[in-house]
Amino acid sequence: MNGTSAEDGVRQAPSMQPPTQLEWKFSQVFGERMVGEEVQEVDIISAIEFDKSGDHLATGDRGGRVVLFERIDARNDRSRKDLESQDSSLSRHPEFRYQTEFQSHEPEFDYLKSFEIEEKINKIRWCQTANGSLFLLSTNDKTIKYWKVQEKKVKRISAMNIDASHAAGNGSGASSSTSSPGLCLPNGCSGRTFNYLSNDLCIPPGGFPSLRLPVVTSQETSLVSRCQRIYAHAHDYHINSISNNSDGETFISADDLRINLWNLEISNQSFNIVDMKPANMEDLTEVITSAEFHPTHCNMLAYSSSKGSIRLIDLRQSALCDSYSKLFEEHEASGSRSFFTEIIASISDIKFGKDGRHILSRDYMTLKLWDINMDSGPVATFQVHEHLRPKLCDLYENDSIFDKFECCFSGDGLRVATGSYSNLFCVFGCLSGSNEATTLEASKNPMRQQAQNPTRPSRCLSSLTRAVRRGAEIQGVDANGNSLDFTTKLLHLAWHPTKNSIACAAANSLLLLVKAVGFSDTTDKAQRSGEGRSFV
């Protein structure tokens, strides 16, 4: 909030060139299904989230499970020769492997209100790590859980005098960790064993040839997941968002009408900071659709509504933030309203940029970029589903018009991405003068659906406060020339925080796409730090 105006930011920008348009390639897939294989409903991915370091990736599914993946190319156990052969670690794209999974939520039944609570994971958020343990929040429609995932070493004991076969018969507790009877030690043990655990213990003639002391032969490591806290009974409506605060101590949870503030250490108490519920429910005109904390200011958060507006609030103003600091909305042109206007204007997701200066919002038709210092309108509008406008009646009939697509910033803030139908998603460049607008497919050949982008003049904030981009419009057909498949929708995706790598969910499959070889991952220091950045 305490920064220069939009015009001041633009004055520094003329010398900065937009980054080169990226080429993308397939990297990895987890949960790949065979041709003709039917997808089980419980296996469909419903949430994706990278941690801040980019070394861990979490997914949640409709079956209430959370699956964790760890990055393997950044591990410290590689030799110097391996590192030198790869030129540098900066040139490598992230590679992940399966780490562990656990059942986060189970189906429940609310007997008081007489309805079933699904186990589906709505959101996952990583928390700060401590002592090598991973911490994360996961939520379904009603209950938030705080999980700790840590490594535990399992020791195995062997090289004992006890004969495993005899020990088992005599009920010895050491039988589960014994070695074979014929094990020889370096001090000349003959390997003979004696039944000295029987009731009439016999000492062999001459005594024992040697004393075989127990030794630890291995220390296997296993991951253990444990639910630390459960935050329940605070929401009357379905939870649609959770977001960590930058202070590392608190987080918010949002449902259709309320936003609650929690302390991670206290699970039986929360504070209601936003309440949109009217005295008479017949007067209800809008609901909360998404909420997120500012990345650096612990007192600021933003939430979006079904009317297409975004409210920025300051927790320092009052305990109950019914009033807002700023309101961001774009008014429809007069005479353009229709039955579908409010439905397609509803914002399904918002994200803050890393610098906290910009907010990205996704509604059904477009992706919009907002500057928190300029509430007159979005600084850029990217058309995603404009080609579907003639089909809104059909989309309303099959409920596709209510699909909630997510959006994300790239780690450097120079690009944005969002999903569409037929497992397609779009990537746009944000900087002034950038013509990057790419349509990709979540498959092993992501570039086959790329449309040709028309040349368009670059626009700067000093001359135009709003710019409309139409370069990556999906032309109503998929990569094979067929009509868009509205049953295969790419709702969830996440951009790696430091690399040009995107994780996206195609039904039960998790795909990772990375920049193709030959395209530099490094950008100008001014672009990385945000100095002189001008968005269109």
TrEMBL record:
It comes from the Eukaryota. The keyword Repeat applies. Keywords: Repeat, WD repeat. GO terms for molecular function: protein phosphatase regulator activity. InterPro entries: PP2A_PR55, PP2A_PR55_CS, WD40/YVTN_repeat-like_dom_sf, WD40_repeat_dom_sf, WD40_rpt. One of its GO terms (cellular component) is protein phosphatase type 2A complex. PP2A consists of a common heteromeric enzyme, composed of a catalytic subunit (subunits C), a constant regulatory subunit (subunit A), and a variety of regulatory subunits such as subunits B (the R2/B/PR55/B55, R3/B''/PR72/PR130/PR59 and R5/B'/B56 families). The B regulatory subunit may modulate substrate selectivity and catalytic activity, and may also direct the localization of the catalytic enzyme to a particular subcellular compartment. Belongs to the phosphatase 2A regulatory subunit B family. This is Serine/threonine-protein phosphatase 2A 55 kDa regulatory subunit B. It comes from Ensete ventricosum (Abyssinian banana).
